[in-house]
Amino acid sequence: MASTTIDTETELSAVNAILGAIGQSPVATIDYTFNPEISFIYNILRDCNIDVQNEGWHFNTERHVKYTPDSNGKIAIGNDILKMDVTDGWTKRNYDVVKRNGNLYDKLDHTDDWSELSDGIDLDIVRLLTFENLPSTFTRYIIAKASVRAATQLVGNPQLVQLLAQQEALSRATVMEYECNQGNHTMFGLPDDSTYNSYQPWRSLGR
Fold first, then answer.
1. Shared-domain flag, residues 72 and 158
2. What phi and psi values does residue 106 have, to the nearest 5 degrees?
3. Do residues 136 and 50 both lie within one domain?
4. How many domains does one find in the chain?
5. Has residue 91 got a pLDDT over 60?
6. Cα distance between residue 68 and residue 167, in whole Å
7. Helix and strand element counts for the chain (H, E)
């Protein structure tokens, strides 16, 4: 069965959506040289993208990621890592890690030398993804959020800002619905690769 190809959100289409929200004409390319307004809009989009992903969602959170030290005993942390913590750190308080000078740093032992961990260390990380790799609900939310900022800083129309803020709130609700559906969150704190069968009344009726 043939499928219909639909272009996903790109940074260019996002910039044009923000421009349309504040009553400006779309552009063919993101050119920073000749149009400072486009550069300003793009920076708003980039900042909103980082702000949203910084919250840590199901789609950009990875658990049990193995990091091993190099020959100098250092563990490099990439610029795309927004947050990190030791896996199961709430039960095993052997390390308290942060990123410092591009490397993993232990605040308990006051060192970034991990030579003793030949097998490495497992971290839970929040990764910054490119705009094109985000779920559609999040790209729409980021665009709505950026549109509010653009209207506030460039237009200064209170009525327009209020309208765009309402659209942002609706997009936020859609994002939360996506997160709840995809995250499979539970109050029981079940670990990964585990199974839990809740009570189902129909089983009693089937006896």
1. no
2. -100, 115
3. yes
4. 2
5. yes
6. 44
7. 5, 5
Per the structure block, which two tokens stand in for 192?
């990964």
What does DSSP say about strands 81-86 and 121-127: parallel, antiparallel, or unpaired? antiparallel
- Secondary structure percentages of the chain, helix, strand, coil, to 5: 40, 15, 45
H or E element in which residue 98 lies: strand 97-100
Provide the residue range defining the domain that includes 170. 11-55+131-182
Alpha helices in the chain (DSSP H): 11-21, 36-53, 136-150, 158-183, 201-205
Closest by CA position to 149, among listed 165, 128, 136: 165
Q: Is the pLDDT of residue 3 over 60?
A: no
Task: Give the pLDDT confidence of 180-202 residue by residue, as tens digits.
Answer: 999 877 776 666 666 666 666 76
Tell which wins on pLDDT, 48 or 195: 48
Question: Do residues 125 and 84 lie in contact, with contact meaning Cβ atoms separated by under 8 Å?
Answer: yes
Spatial distance between the Cα atoms of 194 and 191, rounded to a whole number of angstroms = 6
CB 112 within 8 A of CB 103: yes
The pLDDT tens digits for 108-134 are: 999 999 999 989 999 999 999 999 999
**At how many degrees (to 10) do helices 136-150 and 11-21 cross?**
40
